[in-house]
Please model this.
Amino acid sequence: MANIVAIIPAYNEEKALSDVIEATLRYVDKVIIVNDGSVDNTAEVALSAGAELISHETNLGKGEALKSGFKAVGDDSIIVTIDGDGQHNPNEIPFLFKPILEEGADLVNGSRYMNGPEENTPAYRRVGQKVLDIATNISAGINITDSQSGFRAFSPKTKNVFRFKDTGFGIESEMLVDAAEAGLKIVEVPITVRYDVDGSTKDPVTHGVGVLFKITKDKIVRTFKK
Model:
């Protein structure tokens, strides 16, 4: 079986991180925590729980954290990305890498909405996500039900595909666009999520508008370059 490495971007995630790491290590060979300028004990917790640590001196954003994580992984590894706040269920990690091992998938997107509306998703949040799903699908020419999911798996051939141009949370859409443009096989699998542990510091409306603007701008730029 291929080497599997989990990358967890973390910004002030000391509360839930230890449990996430310990559960994730049941299914992967290595966990890399990218400590993105945290001012709490994220780094210490990560090391104590058995993870490898990459640290940014200042908070650079999720896109930069993923970029650092991908650079640290070998070219022959399957990569799993999972959030460090406990929203995702590490027990579902095998569902993510299974299509890579058995179906030749390149990017497996964990979707909260693949089997219909997710009951616990706040209505205002889902409306914004639906708009971003449509914009991402139009830009990439794909049909994804959860474009903003951070719970994903990547085959080794994706390693050098991503631009990591977006430093923030727009990185989720950008990676789908990059994978689609590279002709990679993208599939989705259903996942669950907890919202009672949502540690996001971003206002969903402001975040959604910002990501939508970046998707649209990126689409225009790429169109004119062709």
